[in-house]
Structure formats: C-alpha cells, structure tokens
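step 3/5: co-fold with adenosine-5'-triphosphate
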Amino acid sequence: MKSLEIRNLQKTYFDPYAGTKVTAVQDVSLDIREGEFVSVVGPSGCGKTTILNMVAGFLPATGGEIRVGGRPVKGPGADRGVVFQSFALFPWKTVLDNVGFGPKMRGVPKAERDRIAREYLALAGLSHAADRYPNELSGGMQQRVGVVRALANDPDVLLMDEPFASVDAQTRMTLQEELTRIWQEKQHTVLFITHDVGEAVFLADRVVVLSKGRVMRDIPVTLPRPRVWDEVTEDEDFKRLSAEVLHMVRAA
Ligand SMILES: Nc1ncnc2c1ncn2[C@@H]1O[C@H](COP(=O)(O)OP(=O)(O)OP(=O)(O)O)[C@@H](O)[C@H]1O
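step 4/5: write tokens
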C-alpha cells in the first residue's frame, strides 16, 4: 500500500451559465499514511467530490500537488481504485467476471483472476452470488460487488465517494462493518467521502471536516477495532465525537 499526499490543492471551475469562476477547492493539504483510513465530511458544495476526482486523476487541479507513494498524480492509474455512489456493473457479465475485470485488464490469466475474484467475494460474504448477473442481485448486493470489484484490483489507495448512500439503513450498517473488516485484513490506504457523520466516525482513523474548500479540522478517532455497530452506538467516545463533528459540519 502507499501513502497519499495532497499539497495546497486548488480547483477553480468556470461556470458557463453564470459566466464566472467558481472556486471549489481553495487550499487543501492532507496526508494519509500507508494503510490509514481517512473520512472527509462537510456540507454540500464544500468540494469533497472535486478533491476525490482530482486524486483519482479524472480532473486536473488548478494548483497544488497530489502524490501517491511519492509519485505525482498525472491522470487515472491502477494504483488508485474508485467506488462511487452510483456505478455500473457490467450487466452482461456474471458477478465473478465483474470482479475479475480489473485483473483481466492487467493481463492476469483466467484461472488466477477467478481465484482472486472468489477470494474477495468470500471476504464480502458473496460467494453464493458468483455466477449470478447484476440484475439478479439486490441494490445492497450490487453495491457490495462494486466495492469488491475495486478491491480486487488491489489498488494502493482506495477512493470512495458516498458508496453506501443509496442503500437502506440496515444494509448500510452491514456494509460499513464489512468494509472495516476487509480493510483491517488488507490495510488499504482509504480516502472516504460522506455526508453521514456517524459513518465517517465509525469507519475512520481520522475525520477531516471541510468547509468552503478548506480543511477546517482534522480529528483522530481512537475507537478500538474491530468496530461493530451494536457496540459502537453505545460507546461514549463515539457519541461525543459524532456530536462534535456534527456540530462542526453544521457550522461549516
Ligand atoms: N463541473 C463543474 N462546473 C462548475 N462548477 C462545479 C462543477 N463541479 C462542481 N462545481 C461546484 O464546485 C463546488 C464544489 O462541488 P463538489 O461537488 O466538489 O462539492 P461536494 O462537497 O462534493 O458536494 P456534495 O456533498 O453536494 O456532493 C460547488 O459549488 C459546485 O457547484
């Protein structure tokens, strides 16, 4: 796994409707250590998705620098895996082949990529769905397959933009628990974007609060791991931290 360094990142868009410039990211610096899980929260429009898209290499920065494992990001790359809220699984491919797609693109032979795909499906409790097609799965299962597909590429850095926002509350909790379990096993470096303060605190080693394109606070989360919701909801530190972060986001 590799570290992620973001230095004085800036992004200005041109708004063609208003005919003016919009500064989405003013000046963001953020270091994520190898194997660290960092959540980014902030009110709508504070620049979260813009930052993630620049780190993914989908969008050029107006200023500043992004480095993965010390190397400057110049565009998309296999060292970074991305999971969005809505993403398309290939409807004509089975779950196994969806998950094995990244390894296939890297030239991994069929038997080996099937082995990799089955290992990750097992980690997410999806072994039974390997031969099904996406339209035969529930929304929550499709979301899980999307996460597993990103993990199967074995990226150094995992970038997640509200990946669980569109599933029901119970499924979301299960997915959050699964993600922390898989992350503990694989130790990816993770940048996770969310609106949901409880989710941010539950998952992360640090929660970064953004306000108007700047880092407002960077808060360590020292809750013990593994984390499961039944225990975490009762935890006084979790309640205190969540309340504190919520207060900051509302004031941001
Ligand atoms: N392609 C674009 N062209 C012009 N302005 C944009 C573009 N994309 C985003 N913006 C503006 O940049 C700012 C930051 O947007 P961004 O999507 O990064 O915020 P966000 O924190 O992810 O918001 P949300 O939580 O609502 O998804 C907003 O003011 C938005 O309107």
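step 5/5: annotate
Residues 1-79+158-167+188-252 form a domain with the Rossmann fold fold (CATH 3.40.50.300).
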